[in-house]
């Protein structure tokens, strides 16, 4: 959909016109620079078909990167052959949105590749490389700075959890399983954090440089987006978190139902968490009411959403959410149920 903006910009760079910039483009020029490098390396012409090779190559690399990342996350040995991705890595690579944008000249898939490489490097303890790859990912999507911080935080949590120790007394981070955690455990977790700071502060330096550079960019640019700032204004959008829970459940249901006990066990666990006791029923009612209140006050009707019928969200919004004024509020308990399902599955 945005190729009419991205393609001419890339072609201008291919012609050496580095001072040319379309003010409608909101993201940094990482995609165009990568295309120029590929065109110089392989002596390609910068026509539309060749430019689309950039995201396509990124799409084809996803199974390889995900195989490595999944192996590190599960703490198992990855396949010896680089070009032998696992079946689950292939399945994740077929995620509909990534697959769709892999065939268009767009920033999404190359941005995703550099984010995954950054997280993978952090898991391997290569934090300088991880920060560098994370910074490169921000050249495609500046909001990837959030994933840079995630790569650091998650890798350090894992490093502290799995650090070699000779006795249980050396465990410095109090980290009980989420499903069995009580309110009193939250205080114990908080009080244990200072004990692990000496272990994680040194590795934070490369990522802190990335965050500092990002802060300098925002100050210089007077905002996060580069162009078309009137249509890309940062706002508090609480319901987007609810949309994420619903979206993740719709596309991630195989991961949900593949846990111990299958779908019936999961449904029963969600029911118990929401309505198992009078107290839980009251809490669920309060949570659903709070969700409904935020839906009322923070739902955003962006003009692009209702002006372009090439989006699936156009039809979801017009035919579902706008079917009746009460419909958006009826989804509140469903959002709570989806959040519980993921908490139970991951916890």
Automatic annotation (TrEMBL):
Protein name stated in the entry: Dol-P-Glc:Glc(2)Man(9)GlcNAc(2)-PP-Dol alpha-1,2-glucosyltransferase
Family: Belongs to the ALG10 glucosyltransferase family.
Keywords: Endoplasmic reticulum, Glycosyltransferase, Membrane, Transferase, Transmembrane, Transmembrane helix
EC number assigned by the record: 2.4.1.256
Pathway involvement of the protein, from the record: Protein modification; protein glycosylation
Molecular functions (GO terms): dolichyl pyrophosphate Glc2Man9GlcNAc2 alpha-1,2-glucosyltransferase activity
Residue ranges of the TM segments: 50-70, 82-106, 196-220, 240-261, 282-306, 326-344
Localization (cell): Endoplasmic reticulum membrane
Glycosyltransferase in keyword set: yes
Reaction equation(s) it catalyzes: an alpha-D-Glc-(1->3)-alpha-D-Glc-(1->3)-alpha-D-Man-(1->2)-alpha-D-Man-(1->2)-alpha-D-Man-(1->3)-[alpha-D-Man-(1->2)-alpha-D-Man-(1->3)-[alpha-D-Man-(1->2)-alpha-D-Man-(1->6)]-alpha-D-Man-(1->6)]-beta-D-Man-(1->4)-beta-D-GlcNAc-(1->4)-alpha-D-GlcNAc-diphospho-di-trans,poly-cis-dolichol + a di-trans,poly-cis-dolichyl beta-D-glucosyl phosphate = a alpha-D-Glc-(1->2)-alpha-D-Glc-(1->3)-alpha-D-Glc-(1->3)-alpha-D-Man-(1->2)-alpha-D-Man-(1->2)-alpha-D-Man-(1->3)-[alpha-D-Man-(1->2)-alpha-D-Man-(1->3)-[alpha-D-Man-(1->2)-alpha-D-Man-(1->6)]-alpha-D-Man-(1->6)]-beta-D-Man-(1->4)-beta-D-GlcNAc-(1->4)-alpha-D-GlcNAc-diphospho-di-trans,poly-cis-dolichol + a di-trans,poly-cis-dolichyl phosphate + H(+)
Species of the source: Sanghuangporus baumii (Phellinus baumii)
Coiled-coil zones: none
Pfam families the record matches: DIE2_ALG10 (PF04922)
Membrane topology, record value: Multi-pass membrane protein
